[in-house]
Amino acid sequence: MKMFNKVVIIGTGLIGGSLGLALRKQRLAGWVIGLSRHQKNARFAKKIGAIDSIGASLEVVADADLVILATPINTIIDLASRIAKKLKKDCIVIDVGSTKERIVSKLSALIPNFLGCHPLAGSEKKGIANLDGSIFKGSLCIITPTVKTNHHALNKVKLLWKKLGAGVVILSAKKHDFVLALTSHLPHAVAFSLISSIPDQCLGLSSSGLRDTTRISSSDAHLWSEIFLSNRSNLLTALAIFQTKLTILKLALESKNKRQLTKILLLANKKREKLG
Amino acid sequence: MKMFNKVVIIGTGLIGGSLGLALRKQRLAGWVIGLSRHQKNARFAKKIGAIDSIGASLEVVADADLVILATPINTIIDLASRIAKKLKKDCIVIDVGSTKERIVSKLSALIPNFLGCHPLAGSEKKGIANLDGSIFKGSLCIITPTVKTNHHALNKVKLLWKKLGAGVVILSAKKHDFVLALTSHLPHAVAFSLISSIPDQCLGLSSSGLRDTTRISSSDAHLWSEIFLSNRSNLLTALAIFQTKLTILKLALESKNKRQLTKILLLANKKREKLG
Which homologous superfamily does the CATH classification assign to the domain defined by B4-171? Predict the structure, then answer.
């Protein structure tokens, strides 16, 4: 069943392109138009069937039923102000940015049927070569409505993510940014710092532990410096919590307190078990 | 080709049991005897074919050609002093502990043909249910001889690991402990502290990033508090290096210095790429 007649995806990178593939494969859209700053990416997206056609300019949003903003965070806000006045009255607009408070505050003021979304389905493998319509299956998507959000639009966006195979969680943008600072932005900051700590000449003597722990330090540097800065205050809080935990472990080590050290590691074991 | 007639493995956990499986499968040993503090583990090892028989007491080392000490670090040192006088003159003894300086210093004084070994093939999946004779294939094993090490014994131990599929690296025990503090013990300390920083109610909203970054925080708490303490000074140095890197990232974030922040992340990207 087609949920939307005309869909416009702005930004055909990993998430935008994968959404195109999934929408087309499941016939949820009548026509998918893609736009990208990089013509090469748009052409690739068309070639592999992630979009039906390449949009010539932002004017294509004029008769769209759904617009998906899948660019880096700062571009999302800029794009929204450029397309707001061109949209049909009932057009739904979603973004897929990794932080939500600033985006939701700006975009919900500009676009009546805007909904902030954050599919937890990214990957350190950036770019078009990794487009995959199935990355949303079994993943979670956080939707961040406001008190003013249109219920019909919210229900339609919820249904869209469910049809793509994602579980839907509703959070305020503020809560989203606090939680993600801990569960996503902090692990990235830690992984970037950890790999930076290893001298080149030691890298050859690593086992799978270092490899796994630093996998996400391959994530796009430009994208992540934007994410970090857009959630700066929450991330600084998360870093302070982490530094305290590290100091507690360090103190047990310094004082050769084996009982205390083992207790810290046992509690970590238990918490990790809950993560599954 | 049998390399050893009688092999005794003390400690039939993940590494000891997996070594037994590999030795028997490749017919590198005439007879493999296993001992464990936990009779259940020894019986399981026998049942799955990791050992030919269960040793009744430490007396079984008397006519062994190879003794493998595969227990936690503190027990290795204790065991060595108990078996040293029972061994044949040309019996080779190896351990598989994760830190080497203390073990090598004590054991090379007690046992003429002792060689410290550290196969980088562990796993956070502790215990006998995960025994796997193929875990050494494609892995690295660090051997830590001293100036007094018998060359014949060293060559035989090198050949043993190569036959098990591992690449062999020769390092001094001191260098080993310094390098492993950075490439293994630090990532573990970071992973334990990271998972401890995440409030329970946030765990449900994690993506694969947190999962990978904290995988090794499932590692055995008792084993790892011993490893941390046995390499205390090097690990404290490694933690200090890491804390400095984290502080540099934090300062760029605090001062909203996007250029500096991106530069830090780009350097991390490059270093991670070298890890492969």
Answer: NAD(P)-binding Rossmann-like Domain (3.40.50.720)
Among B205, B215, B269, the residue with its CB nearest the CB of A218 is B269
Dihedrals phi, psi of A64, to nearest 5 degrees: -75, 150
- The CA distance from B97 to the nearest CA of chain A, in Å, is 15
In chain A, which residues have their Cβ closer than 8 Å to the Cβ of B194?
186-187, 190, 242, 245
* ipTM of the modeled complex: 0.90
Q: Is B272 helix (H, G, I), strand (E, B) or coil?
A: helix
What per-residue confidence (pLDDT) applies to B121?
84
Closest in B194, B221, B275 to A190, CB measured: B194
Positions of CATH 1.10.3660.10 in chain B: 176-275
Contact present, A128 and A45 (Cβ < 8 Å): yes
User: What pTM does this model have?
Assistant: 0.90
User: Which of B126, B139, B179, B197 should be substituted to probe chain A, the one whose Cβ sees the most A Cβ atoms within 10 Å?
Assistant: B197
Superfamily classification of domain B176-275: 6-phosphogluconate dehydrogenase C-terminal like domain (1.10.3660.10)
Instruction: Spell out which residues of chain A touch residue B136, defining contact as CB-CB under 8 Å.
Output: none
- Range(s) for CATH 3.40.50.720 in chain B? 4-171
Strand partners, B9: B34, B68
Q: Is the pLDDT of residue A128 over 70?
A: no
- Alpha carbons A191 and A261: distance in angstroms, whole number: 23
Backbone angles phi, psi at B18, to 5 degrees: -65, -35
Give the count of alpha carbons within 13 A of A9, CB side only.
31
pLDDT at B276: 84
pLDDT, tens digit (0-9, with 9 covering 90-100), for A15-31? 999 999 999 999 999 99
Say what angle helices B221-230 and B232-254 make with each other, to 10 degrees: 100
Interior angle at CA A84, CA A78 and CA A88, nearest 5: 150
Q: Please name the member of B213, B253, B266 whose beta carbon is closest to the beta carbon of A190.
A: B213
A243 in Cβ contact with B194 (< 8 Å): no
